[in-house]
From TrEMBL:
Protein name: Jg12582 protein
Alphabetical list of InterPro entries matching this protein: Autophagy-rel_prot_27
Localization per record: Membrane
Membrane topology designation: Single-pass membrane protein
Length: 277
């Protein structure tokens, strides 16, 4: 029989275990090519999105050297794009729409064993994934593109070279592994989009207005004994504010020009002035 003390120990151990598991650093996906750790660092491939797409090729000899398999991979890390490829000659294609990953595979069969003459077929284009369906691994070092029942893994490798796509493994065609070399794949501080200057100025302005009204109302009510609308500081100004805004708007529409003044009323000179002499 389990005692209350032992049961409490079990719950404590379970709580510590769950807390440890759920507080581990996980790179949470913020976008198709961005993930962030709890400490604010993460991976951001957004600068790599300036390129139309990345591609890489790999050859493989099959059938005892009588067949050459050519694989070409097209990849965009941040957006789904329509690839500038000619699918008319292909025997099969699923890469017509916007996507992030496409695999073109064609075969060249040896025609004559005495000469290196190959006959190339039209090949086919195979869809591998889109940016919306992708997800980062917990450590942020790879992006997985599911294409049930298969999937493609793009390893993100921090490098000082120009952005480059390479084939890492084709051993299991149900789980192709590519490698994307980029300086953007290095761990960095993720900058959250900040508040604009205009928004900041508006917040400061309205904060001062509210502070001014609160202090003014308190001063007039408790120190000067004002009641009703009289507690509003500078009541005449606030009452005339709509007219001032109207005049300012009319002044702006008029090209910031003062309205023409008409002739004033005719008045007789002051009998005691110099002009009356």
């Amino acid at each position: 029989m389990i005692s209350c003390g032992n049961l409490s120990r079990v719950f404590i151990i379970l709580g510590v275990f769950l807390t440890t598991v759920y507080t581990q650093d996980v790179c949470v996906k913020k976008g198709p090519c961005t993930c962030e750790f709890p400490n604010g660092t993460g991976i951001d491939l957004t600068p790599s999105a300036k390129s139309p797409y990345f591609s890489t090729q790999i050859y493989k000899l099959e059938n005892n050297g009588t067949r050459l398999a050519l694989s070409t991979f097209y990849y965009h890390p941040c957006n789904d794009v329509v690839l500038p490829i000619n699918t008319s000659a292909a025997s099969f294609t699923t890469c017509k729409d916007s996507l992030a990953l496409c695999w073109y595979i064609s075969f060249m069969d040896l025609l004559n064993t005495t000469k290196d003459t190959f006959k190339k077929d039209g090949g086919n284009y195979q869809y591998l994934g889109t940016s919306n369906s992708s997800d980062f691994t917990a450590d942020g070092k790879s992006i997985i593109y599911p294409n049930v029942p298969s999937s493609t893994v793009v390893m993100l490798i921090c490098a000082t070279t120009e952005d480059q796509l390479e084939v890492y493994s084709l051993a299991d065609q149900s789980r192709i592994v590519l490698a994307f070399y980029s300086k953007e794949a290095c761990l960095k501080q993720i900058e959250e989009p900040g508040r604009s200057l205009g928004s900041t100025l508006l917040i400061i302005f309205f904060s001062f207005v509210i502070l001014y009204l609160v202090l003014g109302i308190c001063t007039k009510k408790f120190l000067m004994g004002a009641t009703g609308l009289e507690v509003i500081p500078n009541l005449a100004f606030w009452s005339d504010l709509p007219n001032l805004v109207k005049d300012g708007w009319a002044f702006a529409i008029n090209g910031f020009k003062l309205p023409n003044r008409g002739p004033g009323p005719v008045t007789s000179p002051d009998p005691n002035s110099y002009d009356s002499i």
